[in-house]
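Page 42, continued from yesterday. The earlier attempt failed because a stray header line got pasted into the input along with the sequence. Redoing it now with the clean sequence only.
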Amino acid sequence: MVQGTELSGSSPPGLFVGRFGYPRVSFGPLLSPEHGSTEMLDTPEQWVGRSVAEVVGFRTGLVRGTSPIRVTDAEKPIPLLEDLQLLGLSSESVESETRFRRPPRGHITLSDSAPPFGPSAPIEHLRLDVRRVDPHLDRLSSDTAANARTAVTELYARGVRVSRIQRAFSVGTLGRRGRRKLVPTRWSITAVDDVLSKQNLLRVRELPELGEIRVHRLTALENRWVIVLLPGVWRYESIEAWYPETLWNPSPTQVILMGDHEGHDGRTTYASIGGCYYAARLAVSEALLRFGRQAGAIVFREVHPGEILPLGVWNVREHVRAALQEPALRLSSLPELNQVLQTTFSIPLDRWLAQSAVLHETRTQRRLDDWLGTAN
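This time it went through. Structure tokens are written below.
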């Protein structure tokens, strides 16, 4: 649908900021050759229940326009960046006319953090017709006294979608005057998930403790999800098991398990499994606030051979959110939990138990309640 060097169509709205060459990076809009509402193409919150083919179809229909820039130029933007900053605040699809320096070309761009998109080309001229901006984003963009953390947290509290907050954060429209920068899309996604989940957990740690084991399950996009909530205070773990010849496991025979965890006070180092850790933690923290309880939480993810393309960490955030909306199995003992894990997953139970630090602690460390119960 893209012919020559000119493209007329609609942006979802969407944009992308690269990370290679930082602090001088490539940035630009994501453009569709279709007119009208294309919001679905860049709104991962609406992709739960869609197939891999549908999601990839949404994304490969987007052309990325590119232009070089220094991340510090967010403070005094050139006209193209000024247009894209306005695009990042838009509340609806934006009609556009673009002239490229050469015809868009290239293969599907894949990332373990951001959703894929299609071919790209350097921009020579761009015209955007932004008619309506999100009032919350617009207000926080104008507030140059609020730091980025405060702005992100307030937008979330006002119900702005996480994907919209990530977009505005990435294009340098949030934060104090003199501190604003463009943030590579990959980094902005994880940064926003991290900030929001930490803010949620400040409240979660004040809630009464869950008094039972709850299990939520979901199967989607060749992934089996089991989210376990354990009695007691907040602690968290995310474990992924990748079958042979899946995306991150090229081995023809061996299953690979990887994971990371944190205690009640959180963590200070970057999780070894990357952005998925923080995306799942945000979804879990939201559910605990909704339930009105703090608990230990383990996110188990079994990835089956159909997952051969990276779709981005939205896959984790939105499907853990969806799993935690499913009715819970309420269990009274760890042996019951073991039985659920054994019947849900194809990978043997002992592999999961050997990987899980939180389950090991739960099995081996007695709580004060146990001693008080014995004394009574």
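Notes: Residues 109 and 174 are 27 Å apart (CA to CA).
Reminder to self: strip header lines before submitting.
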